[in-house]
Amino acid sequence: MDEAHRSRRKKITDSCLEEKADPNNLMRFLSQISQRTKSMLLATATPVQLHPVEAFDLLSILALGSDQVLGDPWSEWRKADRAVPMVMGESEIPVDEALAWSWVRNPLPQAEDHRTFRDLRRRLQLQPGDHVVDAGSFNQLRGPDKTKLRRVLPDYGRQHNPFIRHIIRRTRDYLEATIDPETGEPYLKPGKRQANSIYQTALKS
Looking at the record's lineage, which domain of life comes first (predicted)? Predict the structure, then answer.
């Protein structure tokens, strides 16, 4: 879906983070089909036009029927008023690893995201398709595991959050200069737009 920023809530207000989104027709349609897709790609050069909640809304569309994006329905990352300030650096993840675990475990990053998550997933005997672990899983972690977890917490809210994992940022220069191995052509044919424009995508797969 190109021009995905056209999928939005009808009103952006000062209290929009606390309000349930009132979707426009396109947002409602994408929300319906997202629940029936295995993969979805939302593309836009301007994922945020008026308020960061717009990026949250796009990820919320992807998250329908896919716990790997924002976790299950009880995830902290599905709450705009908590997730957006965390990503923006306006709030911090708890320094106590037991309290922070509710943010980290739901969804739990994949092994390739960081060696700490690789080790945690190994300790919990998780498969790549396991995206959420229950709260009691913290008790399965040993001392060294908790030490590793503690080390990534200061940067977790900004560097390992679901927004980082599911929003892919590419410059126009990159897309025009990089060859798609399947076609032998650039991902994006050079055009007349400014070379420094930004192309952003959000992906569920």
Answer: Bacteria
CA dist 81 and 57 (Å) reads: 12
CA-nearest of 130, 110, 128 to 67 is 130
Q: How many CB atoms lie within 10 A of CB 145?
A: 18
Using CB atoms within 10 A of its CB, is residue 37 exposed (0-12), middle (13-18) or buried (19+)?
middle
**73 Cβ neighbours under 8 A, 6+ residues apart:** none
- The DSSP bridge pattern shows strands 198-204 and 167-171 to be antiparallel
pTM of the shown model: 0.84
Distance CA 111, CA 118 (A): 4
Convert the pLDDT of each residue in 142-161 to its tens digit. Answer: 999 999 999 999 989 888 99
Domain around 82: 4-88+163-204
Contact 201, 168 (CB under 8 A): yes
* Domain identity same for 65 and 152: no
